[in-house]
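Lab notebook, bench 4. Still working through the backlog of constructs that have no structural model yet. Next entry is a single chain of 245 residues. Request: give me the structure tokens for it.
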Amino acid sequence: MRKTGWAVSSGIEPADVKELPHSDSGPAAQECPDDVPTPAKTSKRARVLKAGLSAAVVLCVATTLVHVVLVFLHVAPANTVSKRYNPLINAWVYPFFEQNWRLFAPDPESVNRQILARTARSGTGKSVHVSSWFDLTAVDNSAVEHDPFPSHTAQNLLRRSWTSYVESHGGDDRAHTERALMMQKYLSNIAADRMAAHNGGTFDFIQLRVVTRPIAAPGSPVGSRPPAPTENRLLPWWKVTPHGN
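Model written out:
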């Protein structure tokens, strides 16, 4: 039998030769086993991420709907639903989501209020150390006057907390409702934080004094004597969380 030159020179029979698969574009690429992806692990991780994202979206949507409904019930006229869930509505709205719908019926301030605070701490024995009065309103006024874009905190935080306190207490400084107690703590915490930032001392009690003066009439001469206070209200000492070092 006649053998080809390739078979004779190599010593391999033609039947033993295996032809590699090929195409017009060249030999087929051989995949490395290490490069093969693991579909099970990838799919499981994707499912976990998708489930977490879906849960976050549902939670955000649910929270938004609850917020819109509670705020709507707060500003809507009194009805059966708002009366029934009034404690829940107030607990959610006050003090951070309080609504003041006076866009088309403004109620401008007719008085200037000066809110002052002082602190006290217990010393050795039965001694008590009381600080001097510090003008909290003056700090806010200075921040507003020297800032072209004053923050909402500087303009309204202290003022609105005092207004809410008066609305819930009236002329009596005793908290008769849960909201009144909440507004009292809210006001005292604001004053305590500002006093701690001012003097940095340690104190356990705080007291506020509010001086109310009428706004001068338009056209009053500059440098004229300020109007006499119409009210000088001294609040009782309040126990606060110890501040300072």
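Notes after review: The longest strand covers residues 111-122. The radius of gyration is 38 Å. Flag for follow-up if needed.
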